[in-house]
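step=encode ok
step=design start
structure_in=
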């Protein structure tokens, strides 16, 4: 992974990286290749509309790891809420079988894990951790972006 860049806005400069982990409701194994494609496409749409940039996304059948960069005006909770709500809506819309598998309820579990990531050593450590999650044959990198862009 290439080093992150500072985001220059009119009144601030920042480099905020987060490791976000979201599990599916009931930890059900509903993250199929089709759902993974929908998830990736939706996340790329999110970064076009919001100041949330996805550096890496990894799926492990019942939870997803996101390595994201954002701006100071977005709280970690707002980032997680945005990602979870928009991806759930798209997945239910484009893969109705998933909604039936979850008994018509929510796609994501109610909570999440989020942690800040440092620019130098921790970013690489977390990216490696995300890659090595779960069973090697089941883990699939859905998206990796080695080039950051300015918002």
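sequence_out=
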């Amino acid at each position: 992974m290439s080093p992150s860049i500072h985001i220059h806005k009119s009144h601030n400069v920042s480099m905020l990286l987060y490791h976000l982990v979201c599990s599916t409701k009931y930890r059900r194994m509903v993250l199929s290749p089709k759902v993974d494609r929908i998830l990736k496409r939706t996340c790329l749409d999110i970064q076009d509309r919001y100041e949330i940039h996805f550096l890496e996304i990894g799926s492990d059948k019942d939870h997803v790891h996101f390595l994201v960069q954002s701006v100071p005006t977005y709280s970690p909770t707002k980032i997680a809420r945005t990602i979870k709500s928009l991806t759930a809506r798209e997945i239910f819309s484009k893969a109705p079988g998933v909604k039936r598998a979850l008994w018509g309820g929510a796609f994501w579990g109610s909570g999440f894990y989020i942690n800040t990531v440092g620019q130098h050593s921790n970013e690489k450590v977390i990216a490696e951790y995300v890659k090595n999650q779960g069973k090697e044959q089941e883990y699939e990198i859905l998206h990796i972006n080695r080039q950051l862009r300015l918002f």
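step=design ok
step=annotate ok -> The two ends are 19 Å apart (CA to CA).
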